[in-house]
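Sat 14:20. Reprocessing the chain from the morning session after the first attempt stalled halfway. Input below, unchanged.
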Amino acid sequence: MLITGATLADGRVRDVRIGDDGRIAAVAEGLGADAGERVLEARGRHLLPGAVDAHVHFREPGGDHKETWTSGSESAAAGGVTTVVDQPNTSPPTVDGAAFDEKAALAAESLVDYGINGGVTEEWDPESLFERPLFALGEVFLADSTGDMGIDADLFADALDAAAARDVPVTVHAEDATLFDESALDGDLGGVGTAATADAWSAYRTADAEVAAVERALAAAADRDARVHVAHTSTPEAVDAVAEARESGSTATCEVTPHHLYLSRERARSLGTFGRMNPPLRSEERREALFARLAEGAVDVVATDHAPHTVGEKRRGLVDAPSGVPGVETLYPLLLESARNGELSLERVRDVVAANPAEIFGLDRKGRVAEGRDADLVLVDTADPREIEAAALHSACAWTPFEGLRGVFPEVTLVRGEVVYERDPATGAASFGEPVGRNVRER
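Finished this time. Tokens:
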């Protein structure tokens, strides 16, 4: 394929040739089409690297009524995500070689490339797990969430030692359950839409609980020279703690989610239990400060923590509703809308969704539009935003917390040169390609 006249994130207008090996063969001006080459005219549109979503829960095995590798990867492709990293809290949890193999067989149905993380519980088998092409260790849960995989400090230290010995990064879900405010859950919390119900979960899993756990995780990692990536930091204080650790010589990095960047406790009043996630939504003041950290460069990665549950499950009362929201399809669109509005630069968006996660996790063929890289590419018209509607999205859970917000959605998504998603901007008609996804840790 030859893509002509595309504007890159840095503003350069270039032609991009994709070779038979699925890698970018040339990025230059004035390239002419070779015989038999498909030409994709991209004048007036932006060509961006496919996003690397370092944090998804595609729910297979054990939860295919919520999401499957097919539906999840279609949602990813339609949103411009070309690599996903699946977390271990499935059923069975991915804590040994056999569970990894079971998940890997299901992941063969993915339209996009993928990594598979290994989990840590009292029953984990690190020897068989590390024999597999593991993406990272984690999400290691320092407090219970979906899957009840919370572990204590001693087991966390053992996991850090095991990972450091093999130079495997560790992704950490950092909350300190001893600092949760149990009194916030007192009273009548059965409804799904009341302001009290919506706010209670945020009051329960306090911001202090996150900050304290992040600081302890960073200290434990530094003692063992382990590489730690802090998942879904929801507070500016946690982002600052990671930055301070890095200034002291740590290799620590952090991610934030779109729901913590674009939603707050004020928005949760309309979401009710559909706005329950771990860590929870924070105050509008903290949300604004978190977004400022993103804009100024303190945030390393934006990843979704795509965690789908069915509408029926989310309609249970606050105590019984599962935590998590979908987001893989709206990651790029929301950030591109912020770039369109001047809140972020397009280069900053490119870095936090593609270039940075590729570099942090050692994906040397991903994350940039450059010669020799995989042709994981997304074509978008930044002048054509549209309202986010659940009915137009592709996750099996069939809802979104971002209903009514605006986003810039892809027209074409390619994985290693293969078209996996294409949308006609005039009619809105869309089609998907074949499942071409591969484990990015296998060569």
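The chain has a mean pLDDT of 94.
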